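Teaching soon. Got one?

===
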Amino acid sequence: MKTTDFLVKGIFVLLSMVLMLTACDSDKETPILPEEEGPAQENDIDVGTIATLNIDDVGVTTATFTISLKAEGDDLPEQIVVYYVNYENQDFPDTGMSYVCEYPIAFFEKTGSVTSTITDLEPNTKHYYRMSLVYDSKQTHGDIKDFTTLPDPYKEEMNMDVSSGKDLSTSATANCYMVSESGTYKFKATKGNSSESVGDVAKCVLLWESVWEGEGSTLDRTRPGELIKGVCYDNGYIAFNISDIEHGGNAVIAVKDKSDKILWSWHIWVTDRPQEHTYPNGAGILMDRNLGATSAVPGDPKAAGLLYQWGRKDPFLGEYDRMTVSISWPGGMNSSSNGTIEYATANPTTFLLGNKANNDWLYTGDSSYDITRWLPSDKPKTIYDPCPAGWRVPDGGENGVWAKSGYSTTGGYEYDTKGRTFNIASPATTWYPAAGYLRSYYGTLDKEGTVGCYWSASQDKYSAYYFHISGGNSFLVFDIHNSLGHSVRCAKE
């Protein structure tokens, strides 16, 4: 963003009297004034003895700082003001244009400090800031300091010590990595669960991220760096830094070649660790939640998770992720040149519309089918399986987990939670949300809250089995449209 854009762009006010978390009012700009009209300076006041200002955290487009009082009683100012600007001007705010954050002294009564977050800053840019004290409407300025925002992870890599990152691929590689704590992580840049190199990597970028803060929030689009602060590729490893795991979320990181073509991509799933649910009759062990879900609580919209076309490794947005995702999502594509594994790999956010010749997103001809993109548990896990290491898309059909568990039954749908609870061996129950599905020939989300469809890795000739729940029943079925987008509930290997 240009300097002129920065000076015009507004910053919204967020105010919490508990932590005093505020965003500064950027509409209050300090104009260029003749010296005689500017605020008089009380040069005998040492600002540092009255209050301190410390930068707590710097993000891609944000900076968080805390003002703490040191003085008491009659020494307290009427107001504390913080100015900031993205160009160097040693005399600001008296000469020049700057943003202003104003704090009446009453703000400090409870805790003696105020924590503020400035938003909508320009990425990878040095910003200057200065604290001022107001006594009798006259200001005394403190020292000019600066901070630099982080690079935009959608465009640039961040300098980080890759070797110090926690290695998520020590035991095994995968297309999805789970993270439950903030910090720096890394994993090997290989294709799925294989040791095959992704190719000649020129750079690593963030493709999208989504953080939903909960029901009743404004559901604003996720800001760049709100979940993934930075990414980096070095010596065969991809590293990334997680900034905030309070609400959980999802993201996809990709590596590109010199021509800007995506070579491979990985799903970063930020959630508390899923529990293992043991199903009856030796059917197997599944996660307590859908792939991409950040909750397993019945009725919680964050439990819906992400959606997948059969045989593809990359996720598509569920209902609530669609509201907060950080980018504009591309439309579906439909042609024989797009319906290939190579194209799907290079375009992980593009929904490939169904081919009416074989009811698949993979265009292999009227009588040709590829059922090896995902495989059941009697065969090796494929490089396109979307589940984390140690997990895989479950078996389906007559020998699959749901059939063995006896779940081909009617009734039991819970309209209040928009899902269904099933009895299992351990713990007592497990819950399946009706997350809806992506339509084969349109790519649009349908039946969210009323229908749930769960992929298996098993095929009945040319179509995959899936588990279906709805208002009237739940049953096993094989799907004639492998191009549909369904939920995935991963099974333990």
In short: The helical segments are 3-8, 47-50, 321-324, 341-346, 401-405. Residues 275-493 form one domain. The first helix runs from residue 3 to 8. The chain has three domains: 3-148, 151-273, 275-493.
